[in-house]
Design goal:
The structure is a homodimer. Chain A is α/β, with parallel strands linked by helices. In chain A, 39% of the residues lie in helices and 16% in strands. In chain A, the strands form 2 sheets. Chain A has a 6-stranded parallel sheet, covered by helices on one side. A 6-stranded mixed sheet of chain A has the order 7-6-8-9-10-12, sandwiched between helices. Chain A is elongated. The first copy, chain A, starts with 9 loop residues before the first helix and ends in an 11-residue tail after the last strand. Chains A and B meet through helix 4, helix 5, strand 2, helix 6 and helix 9 of A and helix 4, helix 5, strand 2, helix 6 and helix 9 of B. Chains A, B: Keywords: DNA-binding, Transcription, Transcription regulation. Chains A, B: It comes from Glutamicibacter halophytocola.
């Protein structure tokens, strides 16, 4: 860890390398028009002086921050981590950085979660959360909405996984194991609505009665716990539960435990998201993979193609989800 | 959600309000020298034009981004969430924003996790992770290290919780319940080393033999699972385990379950961090609270006092941790 006394400027680099400031700029932009020896001299000077281009200066001069802003729901619901990995992979060749904020990170200074990103002039905004009325978008900054949302953003690209198909697959799996009494716990928001619709379609197709307990609040471990308690209370013969996401499924596992039911012996549970939590030894949760890593790669493509052609039509990508079988499903023990 | 055609500038606001650009600046800085009617006119114009000051311009003009950069370990280990809440509370009055990055967010474009923050000219850097050799600090930007770290950052403030005292309290609690055979699972890094030292001190003070299984890798659910398997394998008479953090404790719970041991009937488990995970219904984990929210408030104070007086001596804050008793500890059933 070195400390520096004064920040080197582009002029220092130019002087040390014996070239013009414009030539340093060309090297920084990786221009092919610079000769190999001059490029080497500039790179050596950059290293020697520990020069780092100022994003503030770059942003003001060229209007670009080389950064993509990502707004996520909430740091405690880590479904977005694989999305970020895919986004990293897809943005690497373009040299675009990523900045992440959850919706509440700057509520102490501003009401709009986009403010910080817009004022630092991000290249594009990735909205991995439900749009809210507080969000004021700029027509100059492309928006890519990730996931199925209840509110549309005019002109935005959308990249999502087919949530309706995902829950249909999950119910078909439970039905194939012999379950007839399958409950669903869910919440509000666009994804939850589609996951509910897929559940209802699949139950109807199998000739089964639906049983839904949902909350308007966030889909958390705590709401999953409380929904499951109510569901088991209303119908003690329930043999399987499909949760709207992994956090709620975790709460369902706790409620089963509290009710003296073993998982999957007495109660099968399926989550949704294939979040890092679902893959832990403790949960080992059967879940639906929204393929967030692939989604991140697609979002990166949408960002890059939009930056290359700002006027192109809005795109919509819909990925087919995958059921991930782990340890929380079995044939029903009870009739 | 409004969309705008062209971004309003400070000049547009001045023109619409019939005042000078300097007066708009004064209103933005909340100066008391502006008369109420003129302030009202400026605020109305700001609202009407949807004007948002550019951080890039502010940064270049005044050298300030009004943002504090926070580097965390890893988005999937959510211990930092309460730290952020405290930081928000403490920075609100100063109007300072927060930007967060985990150590790997921009590894696709840069090797140094500080690069992005330094190039956007953050006011201060909060390092809530172990410093690495790749990090190059700037002498112009104050650093506050959160937590006890193996590597020191010269001149930095430090805000931490007394990790050694925390594990001593945990062991004293287990001893008071009647446990004699208490194992410890841990990892690398400064906090882990101090937590290990506290365990060793308390075991020695109680006249008990220590039994430690640790990894050099990250302290995750998976390493917690594997360390516990080895610990139970080496000493099947273990009646209690103290984990270096909540993630490892979660893995310990899974390993106990896999070994057919009930928690806390057959095995008591204590975590560390009082992370959101520990408070879930499924874990309901007894843990040591590092008081991360209070730590966030202290860090905010350190940031503000350092910005007010850049030349002041480095400060060190050490908080006393608290044992949080939940459901994973009981008297030992086995002798």
């Amino acid at each position: 860890m070195a400390t520096e006394r004064r920040r080197a400027t582009i002029y220092d680099v130019a002087q040390a390398a014996g070239v013009s400031k414009s030539l340093v700029s060309l090297v920084l932009r990786d221009s092919p028009s610079v000769s190999a020896p001059r490029r080497a001299a500039v790179l050596a000077a950059i290293k020697e002086l520990d020069y780092r281009p100022s994003q503030a200066a770059t942003a003001l001069a060229g209007g670009t921050s080389q950064t993509v802003g990502v707004v996520i729901d909430d740091y405690t619901n880590a479904w977005f981590v694989e999305l970020l990995r895919g986004l990293q992979e897809g943005l690497a060749s373009a040299g675009l950085r990523i900045a992440v904020s959850d919706r509440t990170l700057n509520t102490h200074v501003e009401s709009d979660p986009l403010d910080g990103f817009l004022s630092t002039r991000v290249e594009a905004l990735v909205l991995a959360t439900e749009p809210t009325p507080a969000m004021r978008f700029s027509s100059q900054i492309p928006v890519i909405v990730v996931g199925n949302r209840a509110t549309q953003v005019p002109g935005a690209d959308v990249a999502s996984s087919d949530d309706r198909l995902g829950t249909r697959q999950a119910i078909e799996h439970l039905v194939s194991l012999g379950h007839r009494n399958i409950g669903h716990i869910g919440g509000g928001g666009g994804s939850s609505m589609l996951r509910l619709a897929g559940y209802q379609e699949a139950m109807k197709a199998a000739g089964l009665d639906e049983h839904v307990v949902s909350v308007s609040e966030l889909t958390t471990e705590d709401t999953g716990y409380r929904c499951t308690q109510r569901l088991l209370d209303e119908d003690p013969d329930t043999t399987a539960i499909l949760a709207a996401n992994d956090s709620m499924a975790m709460g369902a596992m706790a409620a089963a435990q509290a009710a003296g039911l073993s998982v999957p012996g007495d109660l099968s549970i399926i989550g949704y998201d294939n979040s890092p939590l679902s893959g832990t030894h403790l949960l080992h949760l059967t879940t639906v993979d929204s393929r967030n890593h692939d989604l991140g790669l697609h979002v990166a493509q949408q960002v890059l193609s939009r930056l290359a052609d700002p006027g192109r039509d809005a795109q919509r990508v819909l990925l087919e989800p995958l059921l991930i079988e782990r340890g929380t499903c079995a044939a029903p023990r009870r009739p």
